[in-house]
Amino acid sequence: MAVLKVKFTKTKRDKLAQILWILNWFSVVSGIILFSLGLFLKIEIKKRNEVMAKGDINSVPNMLISVGVIACIINFLGGKICYDCSDANKFSRWRLVMLPYIVCTFCFTFCILVGALMCYTMRNELEESLYLGLRDAIKYYKDTDIPGRCFLKKTVDMLQIGFRCCGNNGFRDWFEIQWVSARYLNMASKDVMDRLKSNVDGKFLVDGVPFSCCNPSSPRPCIQYQLTNNSAHYNYDFLTEELNIWMKGCREALLDHYTAIMRSIGIAALLIWLFELSVLIGVRYLQTAMKNVLLLGDLEGESDGWLLENSFVETAKYNINIIKNLGKANQISTVSGMDDPNIDVHTNTNCGKNNVTTKSIPAAS
Fold first, then answer.
1. How far is it, in rounded angstroms, from Cα 50 to Cα 155?
2. CA 322 to CA 330: how far, in whole Å?
3. Is residue 274 classed exposed, middle or buried when 0-12, 13-18 and 19+ CB atoms within 10 A define those classes?
4. Max intra-chain CA distance, the chain
């Protein structure tokens, strides 16, 4: 029994073909939108490439870009097919193409769904990439004289100012590394030498943060050095007073930024997927209705259209049997007997001695 069978008159078939022709052009626009969203996400990731570790974080934008390009091509072809389907004579040349086209379009719409879901599952990979990238960027913050790293100080400062964040997980990350370049340390100072000697790795560690961590909205002048020393500042208590530096870590700030972008892109991709799926269903109805018209031979009469010619269970069994038969076709039967063409060869073990006449050799004259 056919699934969701609908009866179409010639007028309904013509209207359906015209509507699908228009919708396919909207689908071309949706493909351009998918391409643009993927390109936008790729550019946003590239902007912060210096503070991200190498990984598969570009898989989502690359997939959206690819799907967008394929959408434009497939839907452009679909518009041409639907336009010709308004005429039964023109449909005959697309008859053998429509079913493969519908199968390819179904796979393509599934890719859109996968791309939309990947926007929501990308968070873990992005978080790990940001954690490792920010860790290295902060570690090399002081290396302003080393080629390949001299830009990191400016990158981190602009990042902390722009996203109102400090450190990787928080401002305490700056306490664990030497972020002041050795060229700006006074080695004649006893305090500097004591700090270098007190650390196993010989690092100059201070309980301070770079200026870019300061909150300009705070009424009190920024306290960026000796943050844990209450006696170093007037009317100051490190444990109870709200610090005038950014408290949020840059990893969390960037993660929130990209999560908001990917959530919006995911919603847009899901809406496009639903739209493409509805167009695909319409094309399937048009294909089956036009096919039945040609079978009936009455181009002006009514015809049935459906999503599946048989039930879901029967269709699944039919496809499974096709796959099984394809597998059996590559197997060689090992059953002995006349059914095996590879052993259907009769041999004579008598060497043909009884059937061969012996010729005498004439004697030499």
1. 8
2. 13
3. middle
4. 143
Q: CA nearest 234: which of 218, 248, 252, 220? A: 220
What is the residue-level pLDDT of the chain in tens, covering all 365 positions? 667 778 888 888 888 888 988 998 999 999 999 999 999 999 999 998 889 987 778 888 999 999 999 989 988 888 888 877 776 667 777 777 788 888 888 888 999 999 999 888 888 889 999 999 999 999 999 988 888 888 899 999 999 999 999 999 999 999 999 999 888 888 888 888 888 888 777 788 888 999 999 988 888 888 888 888 888 888 888 776 677 889 899 999 999 999 999 999 999 999 999 999 999 998 888 888 888 877 777 667 777 777 777 666 776 776 677 677 766 655 544 444 444 444 444 444 454 444 444 444 444 43
* CA 79 to chain CA mean position, Å: 27
* E-only strand ranges, the chain: 6-8, 303-305
